[in-house]
Specification:
alpha+beta; globular; 182 residues
Length: 182
């Protein structure tokens, strides 16, 4: 018999859903990247990247709200209590949230990148492949780059390792599934 109060059960179920959306997006991203390079569907790859960032950003926000915002104190307290009372593993998804936030002001980021990149530097928008596989001697500026050899996602000056994030999500998923099944 499940001894969770109803609100916690709903909250943890939604947290689990967001974890699953994140891991599913990484799975589909890996599937898209396993195709021959010439067959990449660039839009499909970046769609799954964006879906991943939205859902993993939700995981981060559901676990840790920003305590510096006074209007969010009730949420910080709620999230802390959920994590404490259910002994959720202490996993850091803050960098993933920062990458998700990149899309909040996408128009501004795009214009600043376009205007701020020196004319002698090649601009790369939706780049996929090993970051060191491009023409030697040229300088590049990447708005978005997915390094297929290291599984590192770069958005401007921020990056995350998708394999590390996937592993954290699986740990959290397994823990929540255990809680919900008790």
């Amino acid at each position: 018999m499940n001894r969770l109060n109803h609100n916690d059960q709903i909250y943890l179920s939604e947290l689990l859903t967001q974890c699953k959306f994140s891991t599913r997006a990484i799975f589909y991203l890996e599937t898209a990247l396993n195709e021959d390079f010439d067959k990449y569907d660039i839009d499909e790859v970046w769609y799954h990247v964006q879906m991943f960032l939205v859902s993993v950003g939700n995981v981060s926000k559901m676990l840790y709200s920003n305590p510096s915002k006074k209007s969010l104190k009730k949420y910080v307290d709620h999230h802390s209590e959920i994590a404490r009372s259910h002994n959720l593993p202490e996993l850091d998804f803050k960098n993933e949230l920062l990458l998700r936030n990149y899309y909040e002001h996408y128009d501004e980021k795009l214009v600043d990148w376009l205007e701020g990149t020196p004319p002698n530097v090649a601009k790369m928008l939706n780049n996929i492949g090993p970051i060191d596989s491009f023409i030697g001697g040229m300088s590049f500026s990447y708005l978005k780059h997915l390094d297929t050899s290291s599984k590192i996602l770069h958005l401007l000056d921020r990056s995350i390792n998708l394999s590390d994030t996937y592993n954290k999500l699986v740990i959290l998923e397994e823990h929540i599934e255990k809680i919900l099944s008790e």
